[in-house]
Amino acid sequence: MRPLIHPAIQDVPIGAILHALSDPVRLTIYADIVGQERSQNCSTFLQVQDKAIPKSTLSQHIKVLREAGLIRSERRGVESFNLSRSVEVDAHYPLLIATILRAHHTQLATDAAKTKKAKRKR
Amino acid sequence: MRPLIHPAIQDVPIGAILHALSDPVRLTIYADIVGQERSQNCSTFLQVQDKAIPKSTLSQHIKVLREAGLIRSERRGVESFNLSRSVEVDAHYPLLIATILRAHHTQLATDAAKTKKAKRKR
DNA sequence: TTAGGAGTATGATCAACATCTAAATTTGCG
DNA sequence: CGCAAATTTAGATGTTGATCATACTCCTAA
């Protein structure tokens, strides 16, 4: 297996980061990785938003996040752990991650409110 | 011509915003619109980064920005002016725009430095 | 040493996107 | 009215992206 690619943040175009996080599945996974203190192994994400995801799909998503410089994947024995590179990203693009994640949470809350309102109307 | 679509910010998924700004051409155009106090007509952007862009392509990019809730297009006579909706976006997703634009500028600076260094090596 | 589990690579498929040319639409003006 | 200017739409094309099934590589434990 080829070694995993972990680019330096300066070499990652901002567009690649935005693209990586523009996918709802990836944004959810990434929010999870950042949120957890401990790093996560892949299998943690086999369920995203009540939807089962095949492990190959998952692996692709994680690859995109990794090659956007957002996470680091470390192999420990059989499994590999994914941890956020937010310190590095913050150093180069201050507040970027925090702001996007905040927007993500805002949206989750907004969506929940909408669902509630829709139910009330029925 | 159909009326232009200007969604409410709450109805725009964060992914749509990130996707709209993940394209380098669009990010450049958007940065320009936000940067200018006065709104811009389309023809302003016929040149982006030393590259000529056909009007129709430009129109598409502006449409994506508009439907991501990022800009407002107003027709005045024959032409249409584009202005940033940053106040509205800020209200819903605080700091999002400023942070992304800052990252964009950082990247421009970094790239310039790289080019300079590459030239020095020759 | 080998069976099994974790993750990755490959390749297929379908959808979405970026780009362009050409044609259509809208508006202002003679 | 009828033309010209600014922009949008339509249609075509090549590219990238998302998703999945399958096959593969590594590592570990029995």
What does this structure look like?
The structure is a homodimer of 122-residue chains. By secondary structure, chain A is an alpha+beta fold. Helix content of chain A is 55%, strand content 15%. Chain A has one domain: Arc Repressor Mutant, subunit A (Orthogonal Bundle). Chain A has helices spanning 14-22, 24-35, 55-67, 86-92, 96-121; strands at 40-41, 47-48, 51-52, 71-76, 79-84. In chain A, a hairpin with a 2-residue loop joins strand 4 (71-76) and strand 5. Chain A is globular and about 55 Å long. Chain A starts with 13 loop residues before the first helix and ends with a helix. At the A-B interface, helix 1 and helix 5 of A face helix 1 and helix 5 of B.
Key words describing this protein structure:
Arc Repressor Mutant, subunit A; homodimer; alpha+beta; 122 residues; two-stranded antiparallel ribbon; DNA-binding
Number of domains of chain A: 1
Tell me the β content of chain A. Answer: 5-15%
Helix content of chain A: 40-55%
Largest sheet of chain A: 3 strands, antiparallel
Number of strands of chain A: 5
Q: What would you call the shape of chain A?
A: globular
* Global structural class of chain A: alpha+beta
CATH topology of chain A: Arc Repressor Mutant, subunit A
Going across the biggest sheet of chain A, name each strand in turn: 1-5-4
- Rg of Cα set of chain A: 16 Å
What is the fourth-level CATH superfamily of chain A?
Answer: Winged helix-like DNA-binding domain superfamily/Winged helix DNA-binding domain
CATH architecture grouping of chain A: Orthogonal Bundle
Q: Show the largest interface.
A: A-B, 26 and 26 residues
Mean pLDDT of chain A: 89
What's the assembly state of these chains? homodimer
CATH top level of chain A is: Mainly Alpha
* Poorly predicted sequence stretches spanning 5 or more consecutive residues of chain A: none
The H/E string of chain A reads HHEEEHEEHH
| Helical run tally of chain A | 5
Instruction: Calculate the terminal CA-CA distance of chain A, rounded to whole Å.
Output: 54 Å
